[in-house]
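Page 37, continued from 36.
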């Protein structure tokens, strides 16, 4: 049976006219099988037999005609001489039997041709023909053909001799249908797999596996879909590591489609989404700077994220946020009364941010406020007309209405302010007072109320300046003599300027300068006397004299500075004297204490040079004492040498000596001596070593 002999589409219950080209031998075989099985011969078979007899009669007439022609040819033609050659006949006798044998073997080995199943009339077909055609159909290994094969043989009687073989084949074909269903499931076609599995005949044992198979497939499919959905959620949250971990779980799913195709697809999606997420992160980093250029760059980066990306919703949200930030920058410019720059920023916001209507409203309000800031009635009327263009459905509508109401009130205020400014321009106290009265007509809650207050404050200050300036001018003239009485009179004159008036800060500044001059005139003799006493060496008297200058007066800072210097000199001298008295004792402890006291003398003291010399001498004495102690008590000598302070001439030698003593007390391990070196080091050898060290110094 070959695939070329299998039918394209046929059904077991339909009959077709038999093919006239089928061999007579096959017809005879089919007729005999029909008789054996007890099936009656139909008119269709009778007509087929008649046609075969007519073909046989035609063939016999042709044979007779050929026999009649042969005698004629024999009478008119003689055999050539080469036909009488024995060599030729020998060859023929050898080749002809060989050829016949070869042809017979080939015919025996050749498989019989499959029956033409689509043209068989199935109600009259024998069991063997049905079985043969069913096997042909089943060999195609498709669900449709397997079902057709089952249907062909299923109709045969239960007591048929081939029933056992037929049942076995039906069971095999049912299992093959389940295998094909499983292949569909592995290929990712779950619905097709379920539909295929449920076509297995219910009476077959394989059908018992159907529902279990379907439940298993649905469970696997549901689990894989859950993993995939969760990975998509992680991608939307930009949790790439978790998404990759979830994708790896698909590899353990018992389904080729999910473990390979969908796994590869999900991996590509995660990589692509992560790249988009990095782009979005870059855009957000740029936007954090909150400059127009960086925000435009951030918007351009966010626009590059494709619609099919899992990050696309967040990119759209980020674009809206970037647009809001640009509008905030524009609003900041507008709040700073720079409407031109504000409008320019708003016009740069791309349409992808979704703020086109907001941008139009912002520009309309900015242009209206620019007109209103002209401060004229015409400008305010133009601003009202521009703000009225904003529709009632827009978010900026309420603000526009508030501005319109404010500008309508402001038109009245502008008239009062213009009149007040005209009056104040005349420059007299009376004119300033009239201007103040006119400006006060503007109510507290009106838009120009703050401006009116500012103008009124300026005009009041000008009135106060006109009234108080003569006091300060006279005080300056009095203070020109710079003696104590003149300065006191100037202070009295300037004090007539009351607190809260325009020239009060200037008056207080002048009074402070004149007061300092008076205090300097009064306290300078005390400071000069104290310095003279200090120069003579009487530091206690100098300190007492300088302390007569009280804190808070003009010279109190200078007095305190010199007092601190003189007290430092007294303490330095005391420490120096005490250090010399203690050093006389000559013990290591006394010398160390003397050095500590002497180091308290400041570096800028005149005693510092004597102190430094004494510290070097005392340090050398400590080193000599330590060396002497080293003759009998090395640990005690090390303690004494450590009292020598850093920075002295003897410090380096003391450190070398301490190192030598420590090496002597804890010698390094050496190889076993061979001769006299095993003896303990004597005191003479140590003394010799010490002399070498002293010689190096």
């Amino acid at each position: 049976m070959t695939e070329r002999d299998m039918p394209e589409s046929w059904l077991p219950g339909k009959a077709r006219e038999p093919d006239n080209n089928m061999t007579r031998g096959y017809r005879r075989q089919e007729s005999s099988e029909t008789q054996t099985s007890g099936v009656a011969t139909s008119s269709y078979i009778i007509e087929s037999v008649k046609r075969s007899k007519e073909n046989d009669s035609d063939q016999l007439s042709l044979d007779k005609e050929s026999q009649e022609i042969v005698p004629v040819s024999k009478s008119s033609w003689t055999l050539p001489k080469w036909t009488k050659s024995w060599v030729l006949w020998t060859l023929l006798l050898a080749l002809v039997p060989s050829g016949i044998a070869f042809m017979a073997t080939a015919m025996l080995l050749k498989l019989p041709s499959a029956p033409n199943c689509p043209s068989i009339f199935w109600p009259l077909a024998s069991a063997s023909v049905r079985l043969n055609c069913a096997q042909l159909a089943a060999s195609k290994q498709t669900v449709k053909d397997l079902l057709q094969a089952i249907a062909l043989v299923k109709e045969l009687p239960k007591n048929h001799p081939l029933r056992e073989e037929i049942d076995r084949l039906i069971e095999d074909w049912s299992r093959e249908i389940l295998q094909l269903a499983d292949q569909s499931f592995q290929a990712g076609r779950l619905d097709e797999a379920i539909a295929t599995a449920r076509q297995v005949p219910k009476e077959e044992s394989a059908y018992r596996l159907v529902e279990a198979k379907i439940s298993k497939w649905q469970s696997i499919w549901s689990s894989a879909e859950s993993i995939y959905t969760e990975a998509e959620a992680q991608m939307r949250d930009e949790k790439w590591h978790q998404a990759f971990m979830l994708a790896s779980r698909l590899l353990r799913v018992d389904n080729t489609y999910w473990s390979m195709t969908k796994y590869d697809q999900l991996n590509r999606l995660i990589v692509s989404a992560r790249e988009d997420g990095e782009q979005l992160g870059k855009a957000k980093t740029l936007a954090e700077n909150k400059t127009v250029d960086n925000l435009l760059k951030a918007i351009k980066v966010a626009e590059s994220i494709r619609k099919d990306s899992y990050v696309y919703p967040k990119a759209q949200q980020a674009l809206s946020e970037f647009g809001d930030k640009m509008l905030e920058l524009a609003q900041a410019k507008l709040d700073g009364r720079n409407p031109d720059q504000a409008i320019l920023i708003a016009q740069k916001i791309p349409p992808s941010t979704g703020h086109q209507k907001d941008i139009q409203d912002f520009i309309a309000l900015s242009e209206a406020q620019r007109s209103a800031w002209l401060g004229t009635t015409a400008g305010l009327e133009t601003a009202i007309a521009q703000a009225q263009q904003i529709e009632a459905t827009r978010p900026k509508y309420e603000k526009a209405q508030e501005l319109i109401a404010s500008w309508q009130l402001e038109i009245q205020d502008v008239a009062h302010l213009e009149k007040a400014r005209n009056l104040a321009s005349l420059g007299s106290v009376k004119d300033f007072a009239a201007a103040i009265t006119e400006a006060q007509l503007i109510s507290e809650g009106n838009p120009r109320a703050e401006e009116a207050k500012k103008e009124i404050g300026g005009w009041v200050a000008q009135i106060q300046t006109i009234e108080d300036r003569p006091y300060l001018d006279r005080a300056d003239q009095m203070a020109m003599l710079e003696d104590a009485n003149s300065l006191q009179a100037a202070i009295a004159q300037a004090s007539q300027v009351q607190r809260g008036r325009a020239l009060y800060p200037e008056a207080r500044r002048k009074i402070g300068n004149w007061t300092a001059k008076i205090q300097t005139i009064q306290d300078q003799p005390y400071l000069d006397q104290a310095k003279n006493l200090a120069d003579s060496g009487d530091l206690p008297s100098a300190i007492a004299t300088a302390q007569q200058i009280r804190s808070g007066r003009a010279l109190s800072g200078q007095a305190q500075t010199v007092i601190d210097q003189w007290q430092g000199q007294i303490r330095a001298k005391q420490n120096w004297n005490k250090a010399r008295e203690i050093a006389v004792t000559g013990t290591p402890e006394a010398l160390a204490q003397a050095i500590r006291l002497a180091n308290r003398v400041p570096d800028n003291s005149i005693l510092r040079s004597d102190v430094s010399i004494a510290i070097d001498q005392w340090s050398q004495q400590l080193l000599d004492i330590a060396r002497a102690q080293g003759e009998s008590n090395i640990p005690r000598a090390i303690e004494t040498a450590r009292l020598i302070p850093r920075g002295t001439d003897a410090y380096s030698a003391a450190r070398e000596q301490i190192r030598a003593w420590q090496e002597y007390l804890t010698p390094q391990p050496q190889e076993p001596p061979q001769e006299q070196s095993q003896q303990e080091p004597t005191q003479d050898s140590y003394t010799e070593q010490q002399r070498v060290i002293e010689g190096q110094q």
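The chain has a mean pLDDT of 76. Flag for discussion at group meeting. Residues 223-386 form one domain.
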